Amino acid sequence: MENNLDTEIMNCEEEKKELFEGEYSQQDPNMLSEVKQKLQSEEEQELQTEEAQKMQSEEEKEKYIDEKPKKKYPFPESASDWGVKKELLEKIQWSQDIQIKLQSLESLVQLQYGDNREVNLVGIRHFIKNFKEFFQKLETESSLLLSKLAYIALNKQQYFPQDFEINVLTKSKNERFQEILLTNSQVLYFMSHMFFCTTIKIDDKYNSCNFLYYIYRDDPILQQKLKFLFNYFKKAIDRLEASPDIVRRISISRNSLGIAEYDAQVFLESQKQLTDVFIDENLRIEDFQGRRSMLGDFANKYIGGGALSLGSVQEEILFLIYPELNVSALFCQVMAGNEAIIMKGAMRFSKYYGYGYNLLYAGDFNQEFNKDCFDDMNRLETTFIAIDAIAFDRQFSNQLLQRCIARELIKSYAGFVGINCQDQEKLKIFENLNSEHDNLEKKQIVTEQSIQANN
């Protein structure tokens, strides 16, 4: 469809060029310049209109999407082939031979994707072979770490109450606020399954749900990403073994603004002053911590973006140094234009250097905590706001259109309103403001009509 559209646009441009050269070639140069500018202006307007209509159509669809009944996340143990997967995980847990462990992991990948071809996990094989010093610095062996991960993946009953269920966070026109609350050990359970590629992806409305890229491909960026991941596994397991009774919680929330308030004219006509902005050129986003801090995740509408593949920019880096954020990909459906995903309580495990293709693992991140670092739900006071911007692929000037500005304001507000119970009142206040605005707008129209009639 897009190729056909591009071809059609190119044909139109050629036709205009022929018309321009044929009809005006003998005319005054000034006239030629004016006509050329006019044609260029028409082309730009056509493209802007086309982009705006496309975005409006997509957002109209988003407004009315709702999932009924509420979907439950399918645990790995619910898979029809779990019996075979369990045997392979047990091999990884008990075998002393690293090659048998890796062969079992390759069989798990084969099962997950229903591929009868031989699977060669070049990425993880090269990593274990080439980064022995890395494991020495972690004071562990790759074989032992894989055994511990397999044990965690096999023992769901240790981390979850019986009949525990998780409602996935879907697009909804009925619910303003949805939330999942997990403990650090439950997150570790899911992360281990993501590593072994035994998690279940619900459908294509969700991002990738495992670390297949990391272990399958031998790419410099992915080899660095494995360092971040294994550092998390080692430190998280150490903490769990040393203090099994200490529970830290992580929440994943989805804020939605109501359909009636989607246009948000109240923002465009608000007389309130913007707050002061302080710019620090020396600190990074992740350097700001504490109760008054909300860290921006310049997100993909599929939460995590390329965190589970080759991505290595802002969102993906956050998901590397705060690896517990990766579980959000399991539970969060693609975001609509009036939604934000907010994650609170994740712990930072690693340092990094560079950006993009130059990204490097820079060692373990150590942080001391006191009681002031946690809220009353025992979540770390680290809050991430995932908000995705409109992708203006061809016409950057479209971002100045009023409806696009309104959409970005809505998206930002859905994130900045927060996740506390008190903050949910702000959503209601916002909706009431919009209702008042609609009534005021109707009164203004009546008044204007009366004035025109009197004149």
From TrEMBL:
<feature type="active site">
    <location>
        <position position="297"/>
    </location>
</feature>
<feature type="active site">
    <location>
        <position position="316"/>
    </location>
</feature>
<dbReference type="GO" id="GO:0009225">
    <property type="term" value="P:nucleotide-sugar metabolic process"/>
</dbReference>
<dbReference type="GO" id="GO:0006282">
    <property type="term" value="P:regulation of DNA repair"/>
</dbReference>
<feature type="active site">
    <location>
        <position position="315"/>
    </location>
</feature>
<dbReference type="GO" id="GO:1990966">
    <property type="term" value="P:ATP generation from poly-ADP-D-ribose"/>
</dbReference>
<feature type="domain" description="PARG helical">
    <location>
        <begin position="145"/>
        <end position="238"/>
    </location>
</feature>
<dbReference type="InterPro" id="IPR046372">
    <property type="entry name" value="PARG_cat_C"/>
</dbReference>
<keyword id="KW-0378">Hydrolase</keyword>
<feature type="binding site">
    <location>
        <position position="300"/>
    </location>
    <ligand>
        <name>substrate</name>
    </ligand>
</feature>
<feature type="binding site">
    <location>
        <position position="355"/>
    </location>
    <ligand>
        <name>substrate</name>
    </ligand>
</feature>
<feature type="domain" description="PARG catalytic Macro">
    <location>
        <begin position="269"/>
        <end position="429"/>
    </location>
</feature>
<feature type="binding site">
    <location>
        <position position="314"/>
    </location>
    <ligand>
        <name>substrate</name>
    </ligand>
</feature>
<dbReference type="GO" id="GO:0005634">
    <property type="term" value="C:nucleus"/>
</dbReference>
<dbReference type="GO" id="GO:0004649">
    <property type="term" value="F:poly(ADP-ribose) glycohydrolase activity"/>
</dbReference>
<dbReference type="Pfam" id="PF05028">
    <property type="entry name" value="PARG_cat_C"/>
</dbReference>
<comment type="similarity">
    <text>Belongs to the poly(ADP-ribose) glycohydrolase family.</text>
</comment>
<dbReference type="Pfam" id="PF20811">
    <property type="entry name" value="PARG_cat_N"/>
</dbReference>
<dbReference type="InterPro" id="IPR007724">
    <property type="entry name" value="Poly_GlycHdrlase"/>
</dbReference>
<feature type="compositionally biased region" description="Basic and acidic residues">
    <location>
        <begin position="51"/>
        <end position="67"/>
    </location>
</feature>
<protein>
    <recommendedName>
        <fullName>poly(ADP-ribose) glycohydrolase</fullName>
        <ecNumber>3.2.1.143</ecNumber>
    </recommendedName>
</protein>
<dbReference type="GO" id="GO:0005975">
    <property type="term" value="P:carbohydrate metabolic process"/>
</dbReference>
<feature type="region of interest" description="Disordered">
    <location>
        <begin position="17"/>
        <end position="67"/>
    </location>
</feature>
<dbReference type="GO" id="GO:0005737">
    <property type="term" value="C:cytoplasm"/>
</dbReference>
<dbReference type="InterPro" id="IPR048362">
    <property type="entry name" value="PARG_helical"/>
</dbReference>
